[in-house]
Structure formats: structure tokens, C-alpha cells
Amino acid sequence: MILSLNDVTIRSQNKTIVDQASVSIREGDWYALVGQSGSGKSLLSQSIGQMLPSHLHVEGSAFFKQQNLFTLSAKEIRRVRGKKISYIFQDYQGSFTPFRKIGQHFDEYLHVHGFTSKKGRYAQAIEALDAVGLDEILYDRYPFQLSGGQLQRVAIALALLLSPELVIADEITTALDSVSGHRVLQMLAKRQKETGCSILFITHDWRHVRRYANRLAIMKEGKIVESGGKHRILDHPQHEYTKQLIKAAPILSKGLPSGLDKEKEG
């Protein structure tokens, strides 16, 4: 397993928000964590990189390979975030400083992670933009000069810049229209195939789960109620809540090109 979350519990002063959640992600998985808003799935994903708000307390363990991420110091977890584990957030626009050009974001990101050659940093940034189908002219533009879809692609390029082993994508299509959302996920799937990274995909959209995931877990009110292979859960859900979610979802194949589902699971 590349990531094992074991009995993770997240509490505020007077409330348990995530209750003994356990998730296991293998190398190469596109693992979907599905649940309605407020189910705790985003907080669970944020706990992996020690990114929870200071008023929340976490218990349990989060093993990235053989290393418990919850026991790392602030300095140690910063070495892991971005290089081995990276995040793509729903609020991708908030990831960019509006008065700094796109290229400056790449340059700073690489410099922080030890890349000392300015020429090398530039070349790597251009290569990253090209990998997500963007022209190098965008390097010298400001975030507000890009469309939502373009900026989301830049966010993906930044997240994959250092070839992380695990990418955590948190509701990354929510702020995009349907067409842009599908394009972004196609791009992420393409980059996953090229790099071999694992993806933890936080979503409430069953259509995306049907198309891209190979394994998934269902979360309700802070608890994992069901997990397993995609086709087993979609075709033979066991938990009553899972059955309700699937029944209430739009036709899962509606509007999706055929022949692009990932068949691996287990």
C-alpha cells in the first residue's frame, strides 16, 4: 500500500467530525472518496498532509509507505508535501497569487524544493505546461488572464511538477462547467498514466467515479460505510446509504464518451 489511513478520528472541542476512518490506497490506484458535502471527506484528506485547521485534533495513523505522517514535525511534513504527496484543491484560483505571473509560481515552487538553476527551473516549468496541453506563452501571464480550465490545468501541472507518488484531488471539477471538468480529469488521467502516481479523488459526482476510479469508499457523517472495487459497489452496493446515493445520482453514463472506463479494481 502506498497510503494506509488507520482509524483516523478528527475532533473539534465538542464534536467528532471524522470517526475511525480507514482507507488503503495501492500504487496506481485512482481511489475515489465519495460523500455529500459535510461528510468529512475533505478534512480526512487534509489530515494526510497535516493541513487541518489548528482547532482540530487528529488521532489514528496515516502511513505513507512505512512512515506515519501524523508523527512528522512541521519541517519534515513540508519535505513530503509537494514532492511526494501533492494537492489539487477545489479553489484552484486561491492557489495563485494574483499579482505574480504563472512562471513565478513555478519558479518559486521549484526553488523551495532545492532546484538552484534558474535556467533549469524555467525549462522544467515549460515542460510541465506542455505536458498539460498549455502553450509556454502562459508562463508570462497573470492568473486572471487565464480561463478557469487553463488555470486548473496549471494547478495540475504544479501538483505533478516533482512527480509525486500520491496526488490528492479535492473536488477539482466543482467550480468548472461540465466540458471543462471532463477535460481536466482527462488530463489528470493522462498524467497518471505517464507518471504512475496514485490519486485520492474527493468527489460527490458519481459520473466521475464511474469513469475514472477503480476503487472507492463511501463516507457518511464522518464514517466510512462501504469500500471496495468500483464495479462491485456500483453493481452490488451493500450499505443502505450507498444504495440511496446511487439511486439518487444522475444516469452514470449520461454525457460520457464510451470506452474510457478504467477496468482494474480489486
Please tag this protein with its features:
ATP hydrolysis activity, globular, ABC_Ni/Peptide_Import, ABC transporter ATP-binding protein, 266 residues, alpha/beta, ATP-binding, cell membrane, Rossmann fold
Can you walk through the features of this model?
The protein is an alpha/beta fold. It has helices at 41-48, 74-80, 102-112, 118-131, 148-159, 178-195, 206-212, 230-235, 240-248, and strands spanning 3-11, 16-25, 30-34, 57-64, 67-68, 85-88, 166-170, 198-203, 215-220, 223-229. A hairpin with a 4-residue loop joins strand 1 (3-11) and strand 2. The longest helix has 18 residues, at 178-195. It starts with a strand and ends in an 18-residue tail after the last helix. The model is unreliable at 253-263 (pLDDT under 50).
